[in-house]
Design a protein that fits this description.
single chain, 414 residues, alpha+beta, 8-stranded mixed sheet
């Protein structure tokens, strides 16, 4: 085992201690949970898929934004402050990554970087224990690849730890790509969605639950990068308690003077940002519902509810009570961390067989951040059994037994 691989294993060992010591609202925000060959360690069927217990949600890019004017202005495609596209002071998300999907630059090779940047910032911008701050996610240990047949429809899923709105895309890059695995390579191979059906799938905190079909997904294809590619709006609304425009805008973080220290593993780590930037960032999170991580009193009358009060959401809930910004400490089973969002993507028929990395890229709207995770994929030729099924023919992950999954992978890889 390499030194880097040993460091990653060590991070798994101390995870329980570390997540108890880090403030709830600053402990990471989203991750890929299916396929199971993801390098960051997300899992679709753990108790809370979004609990970040394997540090899978610490791989992202901090303080990034679109290089031009916003192109996503339709309220139906927005996730925060949806009726304001004035490009004025009240349109506070106008430079956020989701406002022109795919155009904001990222750090690293398309798999995220540990802690989001080279500097530890207060808003969850810290690397997993044992991993260097700013390490490129491409350097994580390779996983046994998950087999995808050419022309097939495949399931993918992600979870949320903190709901920054926006939307996401799935992409592929060959491991032997000329020039290596890069964000530019991923952008050359975006995947289309197989229709507009998506589901909520709960973790084992709710055992034996069926999947819950969501309303048709919103797919954005105009004003995106790569041109004409498909991006899906995050279907889960955050809370709407106040306008983030009131929090101040454009305050840069202080990268040179430590603002304090946070406990991390068996040590304390200095963090940066400065009081003005920290207060602005925290204010925006409070407007979105961060304070509800320790409070549920207003919502006890909603037995179906998660976190947001009736009507206090950024856009209509896809199902009754499905909304929120962060995990509620007292009611994790009602929180956004309890479920996955499952989609179907189409593997191109003309793609070459071989080893690939799948990249999940989530462009946020509430914050200037982009989350990315990667999974190892083996694209194989179609077997004798027809695999280019329609979405209605796909057997859901939960419906497959472990032996069925193992057998399907052995057949595909052989």
């Amino acid at each position: 085992m390499t030194a880097r691989a040993r460091a990653f294993v060590c991070a798994f060992v101390v995870v329980s201690l570390c997540l108890c010591l880090v403030p709830e609202g600053a402990s990471g925000h989203g991750s890929l949970t299916w396929p199971p060959s993801n390098r960051q360690g997300g899992q679709i069927d753990r108790s809370e898929p979004g609990d970040c217990s394997t540090f899978d949600c610490f791989w992202f890019s901090q303080l990034t934004g679109i290089p031009g004017n916003p192109t996503v202005n339709d309220p139906d495609d927005r996730t925060y402050n949806i009726f304001d596209s004035s490009n004025g002071p009240s349109d506070w998300s106008r430079s956020s990554p989701w406002r022109a999907p795919g155009s904001a630059p990222v750090r690293g090779s398309g798999c995220g970087v540990a802690g989001g940047s080279d500097i530890v910032l207060f808003n969850g911008g810290i690397s997993p224990p044992g991993i260097a701050q700013g390490m490129d996610g491409i350097e994580l240990p390779e996983q046994n690849p998950y087999a995808w047949e050419m022309g097939s429809v495949q399931e993918v899923a992600f979870s949320l730890r903190a709901n920054h709105g926006g939307g996401y895309q799935y992409r592929l890059c060959p491991l032997d790509s000329e020039g290596g695995v890069t964000e530019e390579c991923f952008q050359k191979n975006p995947l289309n969605f197989a229709g507009t059906t998506q589901w909520l799938q709960y973790g084992s905190i709710y055992p034996n639950q069926p999947r819950f079909e969501l309303p048709p997904m919103r797919i954005v294809t105009e004003g995106v990068t790569p041109p004409g590619s498909q991006w899906a709006r995050n279907p889960i609304p955050a809370c709407d308690f106040c306008s983030q425009a009131s929090c101040g805008q454009g305050i840069p973080p202080n990268y040179t003077d430590a603002s304090g220290t946070m406990p991390w593993g068996n040590t304390s780590v200095p963090y940066y940002g400065g009081a003005d930037w920290i207060n602005m960032t925290h204010c925006g999170a409070v407007c979105s519902g961060e304070a509800l991580q320790t409070s549920f009193a207003h919502n006890q009358s909603r037995t179906d509810g998660l976190l947001c009060p009736p009507g206090g959401v950024q856009f209509p809930e896809p199902l009754p009570g499905v909304s929120g910004f962060v995990r509620n400490i007292s009611y994790p089973e009602r929180s956004i961390t309890a479920f996955n969002v499952v989609d179907l993507v189409v593997v191109p028929t003309d793609i070459a067989p071989g080893r690939y990395l799948l990249s999940w890229r989530w462009d946020c709207e509430q914050s200037p951040q982009i989350w990315q995770n990667c999974a190892d994929i083996e694209v194989v030729k179609p077997s004798n059994v027809a695999s280019s099924a329609s979405s209605s023919e796909v057997v859901p992950v939960r419906a497959r037994t472990r032996s069925q999954r193992r057998h399907a992978q052995e057949v595909a890889l052989n």
